[in-house]
Write a structure and sequence with these properties.
The chain is an all-beta fold and about 325 residues long. It has 1 helix and 27 strands. The protein has one domain: Pectate Lyase C-like, CATH 2.160.20. The N terminus is likely disordered. The longest helix is centred in the N-terminal third of the chain and has 8 residues.
Length: about 325
């Protein structure tokens, strides 16, 4: 989350407004209030429409080879936020804008869009799909005291799109992805993970044995290194556990760091018809314990053979030297 935003929002008294140069926060009456009192952006902003639709103001992340950071992701500094406890959605196709949600956001409908919002708790999908998060922060300001037992920042395997989203400080993996619906992560920042004894800590983990899914991670920064420990986590992107035939991962123009292995590209074996396409990314040299990338051990992926395997090309370290994977 943008540090300036964090300081300004948390310093406002409940029910009062911040100074005009930061995000104003007001209080909704009671937990679960509806989103009909939508906060408006700065009156003088030159509103534009991003490629995914929806007015977001004049905001974008710098183009590759630059990568997203806290300045261009999450709720924009200066955007007024209405403070509310845990909140459910109220209708299919709803848009929720300008909220500061101190608990969880419960998704109870399909095709919900959330913009310019801070969620201190989790986004709980409850099996719904078609969720779009744009310019949203998810996670508290620091690591919780203990592991939460498996609740991810977005608690749901699939059916969502993230654009300029900042996810941090979850008391487990940041995201666990599976099938059957597509997942798109674009122009986003996933970092400041939290490690606890015995953890298998991944920033992004595929786990849905036998399921078919399609995941695109484009122009994002994913760092598995925890904020609360010197451990480096398990992986920035961990892909294993027998995805079904037809499953694809496309990961490109992103910055990747941390883990025992930064990208663990497993189980794309001969005949699996699983294709993992990882190209033109930058790996942070020395940020991992064992290796920047691996095809696995006992169940080892193959280089792409036309129907199955890993496509790995054009990936470099941050010093411009090439990264290999096998």
């Amino acid at each position: 989350m943008n540090l300036r935003l964090a300081i300004l929002v948390t310093s406002c008294a409940l029910g009062s407004a911040c100074s005009s140069d930061g995000p104003a926060t007001t209080s909704d009456a009671g937990s679960g209030a509806s989103a009909d009192a939508t906060a408006q952006g700065d009156a003088g902003a030159d509103s534009t429409v991003d490629p995914d639709g929806g007015p977001v103001g004049p905001r974008s992340c710098p183009a590759w080879p630059a990568v997203p950071d806290a300045k261009c992701t999450g709720a924009p500094a200066g955007y007024p936020l209405t403070k509310i406890d845990g909140m459910p959605t109220s209708a299919a196709g709803e848009t929720i804008d300008g909220k500061y949600i101190t608990g969880d956001l419960q998704i109870r409908h399909d095709n919900v869009t959330v913009t310019n919002t801070r969620v201190v708790g989790h986004v709980i999908m409850n099996g719904h799909k078609g969720l779009t998060l744009r310019d949203v922060d998810i996670g508290p300001d620091a690591c919780p005291a203990r592991n939460n037992g498996g609740v991810r920042a977005i608690d749901g395997n699939s059916g969502y799109t993230l654009v300029r989203v900042h996810i941090q400080h979850n008391a487990d993996d940041l995201l666990a992805i599976g099938g059957p619906d597509p997942v798109v992560i674009r122009d986003s920042l996933l970092d400041r993970t939290c490690f606890y004894p015995g953890d298998h800590l991944d920033a992004v983990q595929w786990y849905d044995p036998g399921a078919v899914g399609n995941v695109v991670i484009e122009h994002s920064s994913i760092d598995a290194r925890p904020d609360n420990d010197t451990d480096r986590g398990n992986a920035a992107v961990f892909w294993a556990d027998g995805a079904g035939a037809g499953t694809t991962l496309t990961l490109f123009h992103s910055r990747l760091a941390g883990g025992n292995v930064t990208t663990a590209l497993y189980d794309a074996v001969a005949g699996s018809k699983v294709v993992l396409d990882v190209h033109d990314n930058v790996y942070v040299k020395g940020s991992y314990t064992v290796a920047p990338c691996s095809f696995g051990g006992s169940i080892k992926s193959i280089a792409f053979d036309g129907t199955s395997g890993v496509k790995f090309a054009g990936n470099t370290f941050d010093d411009a030297t090439p990264v290999t994977c096998n």
